[in-house]
Design a protein that fits this description.
It comes from Flavonifractor plautii 1_3_50AFAA. This is Ferredoxin. The structure is a single chain. A hairpin with a 5-residue loop joins strand 11 and strand 12. By secondary structure, the chain is of the alpha/beta class. The radius of gyration is 20 Å and the shape is globular. The strands form five sheets. An eight-stranded mixed sheet has the order 4-3-2-7-14-15-1-16, sandwiched between helices. Strands 5-6 form a two-stranded antiparallel ribbon. Strands 8-9 form a two-stranded antiparallel ribbon. The chain has two domains: 309 residues, Rossmann fold (3-Layer(aba) Sandwich); 57 residues, Alpha-Beta Plaits (2-Layer Sandwich), CATH 3.30.70. 52% of the residues are buried. It has 14 helices and 16 strands.
Length: 376
Amino acid sequence: MGERSKVYMTDLRCRPGVSLLNKLEKLMRTAGIGEINFERKLVAIKMHFGEPGNLAFLRPNYAKVVADVVKSLGGVPFLTDCNTLYPGRRKNALEHLDAAYENGFSPLSTGCQVIIGDGLRGNDDVEVPVEGAEYIQTAKIGKAIMEADVIISLSHFKGHEQTGFGGAIKNLGMGCGSRRGKMEQHAQGKPMVAPRRCVGCRRCATQCAHGAITFGEDRKASIDWDKCVGCGRCIAVCNTDAIRPGNDAAMEELGCRMAEYAKAVVDGRPQFHISLVIDVSPYCDCHGENDLPIVPDVGMFASFDPVALDQACADACGKQPPIPGSHLDEQMHREGFCDKHDHFINSMPDTDWRVCLAHCEKIGIGTRSYELVEVK
């Protein structure tokens, strides 16, 4: 067994006189962020600004703590994310910045600038070779993120309809990919329609940015795979389960491609990773709404190893009881439910997050083996 990575964790209890923001700063410093040479370095703090309407995203107060710590160590931080593939309010830099400001992320509230990593239309990227990659040749990463000297991921740990959960690896891999980078990661997962389940509500079509979904005289949806990029938004919004991945291995391959993209982002430069396991909603913060959390809030975690960090967060969630009435609870009470003994797989039965972390380990991003250090 190889050497274990250290993952630092603090709970959410706050006695009078100590805030969660104080605890986050202490967690970062105890976990060793001061070991990085930040002096005059440009520091990308990669996070998700939340789709407007969603209220589960991380508050900007947390981002300010991270930025302030970086500045205290001599660095020049900026908050960043890349544009999205799907319709919404973050598909170009202008709308993305408006969404970020609406959700409270601005230089005034966070103490640093907000920069959209892949430019105005999501085309400003850098092709980065990935050593040991099996699925991609070069990762297409937002240029501003690759030009930074140091990368810090600040992640909201939550469920996800295609990757099981979204943590540090998803924040880095999918989140740092430009629009064409996101296309490349999703490309193998093109969905199919089960006509007998389709009720012709057209919700799927409103989510398709590429005009791939049309309706026949029978009001049933059909998908043009030549236009489809496999982003999966139609799957997420279908209330009747009429749209499903057309390739059983697609979600597993998505996890592996995402791992390779994450490696492109972190390889060869200083890195540090923080995940907050709070408001663990079943779906991504890319949704314009958020559902009831599937498990209770757990705490805040930090590590130099994003793989160990994701594993520790998943393990911590696994020890929590499902919240009654949540998506997870409903799934577990469905007729024919088969218990996979994992909250994220039980919540989204077509996913298996373990494939991604195993591939991360295989290509040398980090290790799933960790030592948990509690910070009081």
